[in-house]
């Protein structure tokens, strides 16, 4: 029997981070046994709201009611006690522990920890929920999809009645998404309530009953799925119906400027992350590298940035062999690099001007001494040109994500590189900054540079690429022309279910 | 009612106040020890902080104490700012002292203006040499420099003991001390009737050079980049390993000069225990300064005052002079705490307005 | 088996005892994600407190207990700084070493004045469970604390791998966010690990002043704490492997004591320095594959 009250009710929740108003008087309710989407662009405040519900953040004001009772949730422990479980985007698993240990962690139960008994309990429980996991596996050996399963199971194992999933499909291929949705529907029929955070309209429409849209930290409204359309949701989400920057037409392409041939790269643990990977990028084209997170994109980015040395293979830029080049040699040879993680690209405690000069320090140095005037002038010029909201002397960590990314773009693109390597260039940016970055990348293509776009955002790949290469387990399993690519074929390639013959790439 | 703790970045003007607040807190905490030693804390702190400043003798003595501290503080600051955790300034100081004791007997034939610079260069080289192994192990093989520099601090004491009980033992007295260094290699006095020697000028110049490198040279920017964000620095093209190696070696060299000063300016031969932990105090000074060369100067003078004051307190009130060590360490810890706490505001919240 | 070897083995166990205790103590801290460079000072403090309390009460065991409590108290301070406030662990640990060294020496002056010879105490006597049995008799002639230290090794292993608390320690040292999300109080676990670990360091110090030396001297620790830090890396953060490291170092140390008297034509300082140099060499070999606890040195703040 389903009680006639809300499973969760959040009333007038407000949360500030410094000057940023992340949640502004948000109301949200969840009915028992429903899948309720929390829809919004990056930075709309979805994750913040749910982190408050799960006790990871403390709201500045507002209240939370769970099962009709006002609740005080100061830590995840409180949330778990109230039957709330959360699967965050960054999995909260300890890689060096087994699945059993991860699931048992933090569970009250005496001083002694009996691995055998714990394992049995986990295995039994997993069977009961119909979730396939290996209790003995070390988490660091699991694929991303498997880790997500462990996370969901972990919440269920703690008797979660409400499950929060933060962008659960971002790390999955389309086929895995289907499996996840099936699991959610089954659990729902057993009485579980789910809050499904997403910014993807089709997914929300596929699996949810109700949808609450957040925009700029405020609730833009809650609608029933049956009474809405994707168009309406898009309008609620961004305040306009169409959005985004896409490329216009195909361009005549020139010579290959970037050639990667048989690249073999080991990861931090010494395992091969790239297993003889090959592709090339021509002048005036964008080659998108699509793939599920963790298939070698990080290592590819690092190898092309010069921060990870390949064990074998070749990397050529405009005919020059730069396989073992250092980051500064690559930059000097005309490779503009945008790192996967912004914060690994700039030194947060240094100023904007210093960060902008760092990559080409020899140009700002005479006899080993810094030319502070040139450093400042360079910064002023780039700040104006790239519309960075900052002063040259601002510490760069104080910049918003979008402005920080603009600074990185400025540094990488100001010297008109012939090759541009952009890894996850818009991850975590708001709509405006995303459009700006995508526009800049297409500008590079149009002026004749070879652009390599490594992104886990399939929409981004489809919007910008002239050709799309799919990476799977450290190899390119297929290269398609933009016109030939559709989500289903890409999904099959990304999941390793299909591999295309080498001949297809042109 | 409850306490509400929020993260609120401190206004800029708070930062310079931190050391002052830390000093006050430290003295309140350590007052317990003074009482235990049977003295009046106020009286003790008068002798600690005011008395040393009231006589010419003890003011000059503060400068004497501050001379090696300026150098070890600069050495540690230099290494730390590049992200290299050189805890080995103590050992590198001793290496410099060994070089000075050796060169001091060798360069007797040279005039002072040639001998003294050679002593400094020799001490710098020796400090660098002692810093070389852990630095190479760190940048080539990723061996933790904290552990290796600490272990070498112990090893250097055995080297000294070997030299003083073996080849360098004073043949006349049989004391474990090296032969007296030649007159021309002695760091001459800056101020008559005091122990203030030319090493103070050397230390001041070194500190200015350190400031200059850190803020004006490309190496300094590379060092700070490597220290503040190693991965980002590497991405931007900084050769982090080479930068760290340079910082580690220069740091060792500067600490070596401190050893030269103690031999050539104070003791005139090498003895065991020539440093009562100046290398470790350098870490305190670097931290108090916030890795800022100007701050190093102030902190070194202040620690010099505490060292001198501890002697005064001991003589006047019979409180063990080790109080000075306790105060220094407590000051370090309270300062560390203050740097964090400045960014928090604790307010008393009434009612039940809790989310 | 000849006398030399038997003596060497017996001495190895003796010399290794404080290293085993200290290293296991540091192991607790580091597995929870905190590098405790206070170890050198905590051992010194433990040696001093143990010595004073034993002398005043007439009970050596009370001295050991006091040393453990003193160590735990120091661990509490370290936890406040490194866990609560999240300050730099290198500097705060060294600061604690300097603080406790200074405080011990200050207190020593107040209690003992300036004696010409270090004050001494009737130390623990060795147990001799096998009496005069050849070979094994002398080897087993050890202090009770040595037996306890050896027994603690499997106990620590059990605590880390077979208790919920141990699971929590391993989790907060690898991924505190995950532990926190699982409802584990990261702070509480780290506080506890630091206090237990530092208590063991205190006991290590007390062994030196109350058993091995029966006296308190300024140089009583002589860098043994730093050796413990190195042994952890050498032992790859595993209690059993760490034991081998401690025995290896103890062996080299015991060997140098014997070589000094063997009439070899080398200055004895070479032998004194040998264990430290061997440790650096071992670190160079082992350190390359070291698998540091992923969260070591990283303070945890939830926002």
Give an overview of the whole structure.
- The complex is a heterotrimer of chains A (506), B (355) and C (303).
- Chain A has 16 helices and 22 strands.
- In chain A, β21 (467-472) and β22 form a beta hairpin.
- With 506 residues, chain A is an alpha/beta fold.
- Chain A folds into two domains: 8-238, 3-Layer(aba) Sandwich (Rossmann fold); 256-347 and 415-504, P-loop containing nucleotide triphosphate hydrolases (Rossmann fold, 3-Layer(aba) Sandwich), CATH 3.40.50.
- By secondary structure, chain B is mainly alpha-helical.
- Chain B is 69% helix and 3% strand.
- Chain B has helices at residues 17-36, 41-50, 56-81, 89-106, 112-141, 145-165, 199-216, 218-228, 230-235, 240-267, 278-289, 293-317, 323-341, and strands spanning 2-7, 344-349.
- A two-stranded antiparallel ribbon of chain B has the order 1-2.
- In chain B, α1 packs across α2.
- The longest helix of chain B is centred in the middle third of the chain and has 30 residues, at 112-141.
- Chain B is globular.
- Chain C is mainly α.
- Chain C has one domain (3-120, 142-287): Orthogonal Bundle (ABC transporter involved in vitamin B12 uptake, BtuC).
- Chain C is 72% helix and 0% strand.
- The longest helix of chain C has 29 residues, at 3-31.
- Chain C is globular and about 60 Å long.
- The N and C termini of chain C lie far apart (63 Å).
- The B-C interface holds B 33, 36-37, 85, 87, 133, 137, 141-144, 146-148, 150-155, 158-159, 161-162, 165-166, 277, 280, 283-284, 287, 320, 322-326, 328-330, 332-333, 336-337, 339-341 and C 35, 37, 77, 81, 85-88, 90-92, 94-96, 98-99, 101-103, 105-106, 109-110, 222-223, 226-227, 229-230, 233, 267, 269-270, 272-273, 276-277, 279-280, 283-284, 287-288.
Compact summary:
Chain A has 506 residues and is α/β, with parallel strands linked by helices. In chain A, 32% of the residues lie in helices and 25% in strands.
């Amino acid at each position: 029997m389903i009680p006639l009250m809300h499973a969760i009710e959040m009333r007038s929740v407000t949360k500030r981070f410094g000057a940023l108003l992340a949640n502004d008087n948000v109301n949200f309710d969840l009915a028992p046994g429903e899948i309720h989407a929390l829809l919004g662009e990056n930075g709309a405040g979805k994750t913040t709201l749910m982190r408050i519900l799960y006790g990871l953040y403390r709201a500045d004001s507002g209240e939370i009611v769970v099962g009709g009772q006002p609740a005080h949730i100061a830590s995840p422990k409180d949330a778990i006690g109230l039957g709330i479980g959360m699967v965050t985007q960054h999995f909260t698993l300890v890689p060096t522990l087994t699945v059993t240990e991860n699931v048992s962690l933090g569970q009250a139960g005496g001083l002694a920890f009996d691995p055998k008994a714990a394992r049995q309990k986990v295995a039994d429980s997993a069977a009961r929920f119909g979730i396939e996991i290996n209790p003995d596996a070390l988490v660091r050996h699991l694929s991303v999809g498997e880790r997500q399963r462990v996370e969901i199971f972990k919440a269920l194992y703690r008797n979660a009645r409400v499950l929060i999933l933060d962008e659960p499909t971002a790390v999955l291929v389309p086929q895995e998404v289907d499996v996840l949705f099936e699991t959610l529907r089954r659990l729902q029929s057993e009485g579980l309530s789910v809050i499904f955070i997403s910014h993807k309209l089709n997914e929300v429409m596929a699996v949810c009953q109700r949808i609450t849209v957040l925009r700029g930290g405020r609730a833009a409204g809650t609608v029933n799925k049956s009474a809405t359309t994707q168009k309406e949701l898009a309008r609620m989400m961004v305040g306009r119906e169409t959005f985004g920057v896409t490329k216009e037409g195909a361009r005549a392409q020139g010579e290959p400027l970037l050639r990667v041939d048989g690249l073999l790269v080991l990861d931090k643990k010494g395992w091969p992350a790239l297993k003889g990977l090959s592709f090339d990028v021509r002048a005036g084209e964008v080659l998108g590298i699509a793939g599920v997170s963790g298939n070698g994109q990080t290592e590819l980015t690092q190898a092309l940035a010069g921060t990870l040395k390949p064990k074998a293979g070749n990397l050529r830029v405009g005919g020059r062999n730069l396989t073992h080049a250092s980051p500064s040699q690559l930059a000097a040879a005309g490779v503009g690099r945008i790192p996967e993680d912004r914060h690994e690209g700039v030194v947060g405690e240094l100023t904007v001007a210093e960060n902008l000069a760092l990559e080409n320090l020899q140009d700002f140095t005479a006899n080993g001494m810094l030319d502070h005037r040139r450093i400042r002038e360079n910064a002023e010029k780039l700040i104006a040109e790239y519309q960075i909201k900052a002063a040259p002397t601002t510490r760069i960590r104080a910049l918003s994500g979008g402005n920080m990314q603009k600074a990185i773009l400025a540094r990488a693109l100001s010297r008109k590189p012939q090759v541009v390597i952009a890894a996850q260039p818009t991850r975590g940016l708001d709509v405006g900054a995303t459009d700006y970055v995508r526009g800049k990348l297409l500008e590079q293509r149009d002026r004749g540079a070879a652009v390599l776009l490594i992104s886990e955002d399939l929409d981004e790949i489809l919007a910008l690429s002239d050709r799309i290469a799919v990476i799977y387990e450290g190899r390119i399993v297929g290269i398609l022309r933009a016109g030939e690519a559709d989500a289903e074929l890409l999904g099959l390639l990304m999941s390793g279910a299909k591999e295309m013959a080498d001949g297809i790439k042109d | 009612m409850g306490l509400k703790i929020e993260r609120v970045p401190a206004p800029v003007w708070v930062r310079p106040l931190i050391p002052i607040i830390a000093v006050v807190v430290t003295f309140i905490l350590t007052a317990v020890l003074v009482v235990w030693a049977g003295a009046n804390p106020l009286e003790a702190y008068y002798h600690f902080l005011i008395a040393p400043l009231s006589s010419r003798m003890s003011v000059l003595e503060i400068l004497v104490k501050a001379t090696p501290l300026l150098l070890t503080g600069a050495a540690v600051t230099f290494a730390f700012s590049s992200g290299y955790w050189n805890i080995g300034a103590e050992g590198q100081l001793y290496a410099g002292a060994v070089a000075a004791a050796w060169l001091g007997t060798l360069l007797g034939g040279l005039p002072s203006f040639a001998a003294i610079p050679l002593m400094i260069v020799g001490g710098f080289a020796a400090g660098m040499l002692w810093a070389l192994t852990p630095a190479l192990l760190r940048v080539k093989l990723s061996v933790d420099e904290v552990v290796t520099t600490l272990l070498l601090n112990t090893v250097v004491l055995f080297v000294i003991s070997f030299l003083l009980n073996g080849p360098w033992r004073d043949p006349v007295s049989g004391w474990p001390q090296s032969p007296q260094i030649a007159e021309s290699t002695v760091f001459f006095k800056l101020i008559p009737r005091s122990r203030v020697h030319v090493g103070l000028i050397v230390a001041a110049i070194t500190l200015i050079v350190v400031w200059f490198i850190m803020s004006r040279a490309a190496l300094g920017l590379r060092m700070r980049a490597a220290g503040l964000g190693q991965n980002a620095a590497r991405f931007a093209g900084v050769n982090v390993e080479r930068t760290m190696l340079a910082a580690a070696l220069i740091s060792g060299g500067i600490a070596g000069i401190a050893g030269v000063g103690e031999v050539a300016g104070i003791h005139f031969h090498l003895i065991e225990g020539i440093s009562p932990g100046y290398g470790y105090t350098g870490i305190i000074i670097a931290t108090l300064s916030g890795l800022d060369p100007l701050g190093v100067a102030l902190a070194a003078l202040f620690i010099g005052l505490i060292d001198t004051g501890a002697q005064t307190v001991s003589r006047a009130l019979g409180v063990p002079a080790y109080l000075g060590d306790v105060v220094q360490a407590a000051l370090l810890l309270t300062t560390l705490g203050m740097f964090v706490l400045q960014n928090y505001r604790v307010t008393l919240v009434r009612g039940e307005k809790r989310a | 088996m000849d006398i030399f070897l038997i003596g060497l083995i017996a001495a190895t166990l003796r010399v290794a005892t404080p290293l085993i205790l200290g290293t296991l103590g540091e192991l607790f801290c580091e597995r929870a994600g905190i590098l405790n460079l206070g170890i050198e000072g905590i051992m010194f403090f433990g040696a001093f407190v143990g010595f004073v309390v034993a002398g005043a009460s007439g009970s050596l065991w009370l001295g050991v207990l006091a040393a453990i409590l003193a160590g735990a108290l120091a661990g509490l301070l370290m936890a406040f700084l490194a866990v609560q406030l999240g300050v730099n662990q290198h500097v705060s640990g060294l600061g604690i070493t300097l603080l406790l060294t200074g405080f011990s020496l200050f207190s020593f002056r107040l209690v003992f004045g300036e004696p010409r010879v270090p004050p001494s105490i009737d130390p623990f006597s060795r147990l001799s469970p096998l009496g005069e049995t050849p070979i094994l008799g002398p080897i087993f002639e050890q202090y009770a604390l040595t037996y306890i230290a050896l027994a603690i090794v499997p106990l620590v292993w059990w605590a880390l791998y077979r208790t919920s608390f141990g699971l929590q320690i391993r989790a907060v040292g690898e991924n505190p966010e995950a532990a926190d999300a699982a409802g584990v109080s990261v702070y509480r676990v780290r506080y506890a690990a630091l206090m237990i670990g530092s208590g063991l360091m205190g006991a290590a110090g007390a062994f030196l002043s109350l058993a091995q030396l029966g006296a308190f001297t300024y140089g009583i620790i002589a860098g043994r704490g730093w050796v413990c830090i190195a042994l952890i890396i050498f032992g790859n953060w595993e209690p059993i492997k760490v034991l081998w490291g401690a025995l290896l170092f103890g062996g080299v140390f015991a060997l140098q004591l014997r070589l000094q008297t063997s009439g070899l034509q080398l200055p004895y300082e070479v032998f004194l320095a040998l264990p430290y140099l061997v440790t650096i060499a071992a670190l160079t070999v082992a350190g390359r594959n070291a698998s540091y606890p992923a969260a070591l040195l990283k303070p945890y703040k939830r926002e």
